[in-house]
Amino acid sequence: MFTVEQIEAAHSKVNSGADFPGYIKEIKQFGVRSFETWVKDSQTEYFGENGYTVESKPKYDELIIENKVDKELFIKQLKSHQLGETDYMKFCEDCAETGIEKWIVDLDQFTCTYYDQSGNKILTEEIPH
């Protein structure tokens, strides 16, 4: 079984979106199968085998999520983040600004899916591995 502390230690090595694939590989080795992160405060629930879950605490004061999704701007900001041009906090602020409520990472499929406040899928990306 994995702990939030293990996951947070792995996440501390992430300086930008460019580091995300390595982080995913590391936490998959711990036994994480998927996780769901809420943009409003970065609270995350991690899922493992046999119904095992752990939940992190909020990481920052709550952001206001815009009701209207700006998918084009979101994709532009996401690409910038993936190139290492922004840090995690800026990425979360960009998500809130463009109407992204949460993302779900599937470590078996190596995908990250972004959702709006109505639960609509906005974008699914493959994570390089």
TrEMBL record:
Domain of life: Bacteria
Stored InterPro entries: DUF1398 (IPR009833), YdfO-like_sf (IPR036696)
One Pfam family per UniProt: DUF1398
The protein's name: DUF1398 domain-containing protein
